[in-house]
Amino acid sequence: MDTSPELWGSDWAEFRPERWLERRSGSSDEWYFIARDPFTYPVFHSGPRTCLGKEIAVVIVKMVAVTILKRFRIIPAQDNLSQNSDAFITSWMKHGFPIRIIERH
């Protein structure tokens, strides 16, 4: 199902995160997230056959993120970044946020 052109379009193989976003009505630059039901995008399956390891996988992803953040410092790549951001559920910078990753000692 995750390769179905009927569900995802003819460009199903391309990485396009905007598949899960829709524009707010009356706005040209406000987006909101659209969660797909687990039957449409069955990464961990759904219903009575939901993957038993789903919760463990989520915990492992969190542990990996924490381990990386404990080992590396993430700092801005530029000292004078402009603070142009878009309002959303979570704020994000319009032109990205270039960073440098430095190993902690």
From TrEMBL:
Signal peptide: none annotated. The keyword Oxidoreductase applies. Keywords: Heme, Iron, Metal-binding, Monooxygenase, Oxidoreductase. GO terms for biological process: lipid metabolic process. The keyword Oxidoreductase applies. One of its GO terms (molecular function) is oxidoreductase activity, acting on paired donors, with incorporation or reduction of molecular oxygen. InterPro entries: Cyt_P450 (IPR001128), Cyt_P450_CS (IPR017972), Cyt_P450_sf (IPR036396). Its cofactor is heme. Belongs to the cytochrome P450 family. PANTHER family: CYTOCHROME P450. This is Uncharacterized protein. It comes from Capsicum baccatum (Peruvian pepper).
